[in-house]
Amino acid sequence: MGSGISEIVIPASVKIIKGSVFANCKNLKKVVFEGDRLDKLSGCFQRCTALQSIELPRYVGAVSGEMFFGCTNLTNVKLPENLKELPNDTFRDCAKLTTVTIPASVTKMGSEVFDGCGVVSLDLSHVIKCRMNHFFIFRSVNKQ
Asked: Nearest-CA neighbor of 131 among 118, 114, 112, 117?
């Protein structure tokens, strides 16, 4: 499914991306958002194993869980400054992700957000609500 796609340009006219539309695009290396606003971005980059870096639009109304689940080569993510929540499994199994700057607007985090990541430090001082579920969000951080 989508294995030959290496670059995606998302026009400014697109305001909602939902479903697993780009999931399993094993060769996807580059995603360009032409606009600076998305109303909804719903779990669409799962298991894009070639994706190394992504800069999301400045404003994203809502994101869903598992957004980057299994993006094993992802090293850098620029999150929108207005983001309010990191849902469950957002960066799960992003083994090479070592640094994430979480915007001060994020006040809620789901469970296992960084499970299987290489994240070494985070500032969570602004997070008010953290859903632990059955496992702490950093259950296997730094698993190599």
From this structure: 112
Amino acid 14 reads V
Q: Are 102 and 123 in contact (CB under 8 A)?
A: yes
The pLDDT of residue 78 is above 70: yes
d(CA 33, CA 8): 8
* Bridge partners for 109 per DSSP: 86, 130
From the list 111, 102, 103, the residue with the least C-alpha distance to 129 is: 111
Both tokens assigned to 123: 């500032």
DSSP state of 37: E
- Asked whether residue 7 carries a pLDDT value surpassing 90, the answer given is yes
Select from 137, 18, 126 the least CA-distant residue to 87.
137
* Number of helical (H) and strand (E) elements in the chain, helices listed first: 0, 11
Farthest CA pair distance, the chain: 41
Return the closest-CA partner of residue 47 out of 112, 97, 91.
91
Per mean pLDDT, which range of 6-15, 48-57, 112-121 is the poorest?
112-121
